[in-house]
Task: structure prediction
Amino acid sequence: MAAARAQQRGGGVTGIHIWLIAFVALWLLSTVLLVWLYTDQSAVKKTADDLRASEQSARTELRQANGARDQFAEMLTGSTDDDLPTAASKLGDLFVRIVDEDLVTDASVFEDPATGVLEAMTALYQDFRGEYENRLQAEDRASSLGEEVDQLMQERDERTEAFARTEERLTDQLRELEEDRSRYRNERDAEMDAVEERIEETKQELTRDVQAQRNENERLRQELADLKSRYESLQAKLGELQITPETLLTARQGDGQILMAKPGDEVVYIDLGRRHHLTRGMQFAVYANHEGIPADGQAKARIEVARIFDRSAECVIREVFGTEAILEGDIVNNPVYDRTRTLRFVVAGMFDLDGDGYEEQDGTDRVAALIRDWGGELVQDVSARVDFVVLGTRPPRPSGSAEDAEEQGGVEAVRQRLFNEYGRVVEQATALSIPILTQETFLHFLGYAERSGR
Result:
């Protein structure tokens, strides 16, 4: 239909026009003949000449119209082989594609080719010009963004170079620190090797006396069996004999010594190692060698085992009380630890480990945990085989008599049993002369409290 409309609006000479012209020519010719029949020959001849001139003019106009039509068709399609109907059909197909693909701002001018090619071309020109201007603006924006990107890339490169320089500097510093640390570690390990070599030399010197002592030890072993039975009976009588030994003598015997310590260093080395059943995490209190271990157990520092060697160990300084420094030869001690055997403990009473003035419900369990952590053994009953008794504060006496408490049962009965148990432990420990450690003294010996007056 679009092609038909284009053909109708073409305005060129069609077959109908030609037939009309021919009909007019025949009509004029018949008229001329009729006139010629009735007029003279001169008039007829003149008329014939006029008709021939008119026919020649009509043919000229027809040729011009056909040429214009072909030229217009060629202008529309660019091909001389297309006639006007073909060109109109192609133009209609193009308009349909433009409308279907929604490629223009105003598609109404392309819905009917009869609206005019010029109007459609004008609409296409306006859309093209708008798109062209948008493209120019986009190119300007792209150019501007490209400059910004170049600037950002330059800044990024500069920052990358600066970061690389900083990273290189820090890497060099880290390498130097690692080298210093490695050198210091090697020097310290070399010193420890030298110390262990000195210890080994000392041990070898002492082995000369070992063989001589073995025979003596065999003899003494038999005597020891006899003395054990006598010792148990004598322990039971110590309270009656009212012998007053030095206060906490067994607890004040040091377990080892400081082998090496440098002022300002965070680690020290002790003469206890793997063969002495040492474990990582074990803690020791430190005492000045010239003063020994005081009766109250207050230490000048607390250390913790970090690395264990065969005959020595590296310890971290956890706390220093006062201004005294740790020196070589200082005594280290932990009342729960013994290098030759497992010590046995009895724990009784109530404990205020937080120092807030109130006994904790789990105070006894926490003290027991400390003893177990450092290798001690907990027992329930006091006997001659017990090494230490750790006492907290005495449980409060229940209201009323013991008989009333037992009759009431429940909490009062428990309080009465705890009260009686505390008294029994104190009485038996005193009778057997077993060292008694109060809560304060026990914590002092573990290195958990500062020495007074320091």
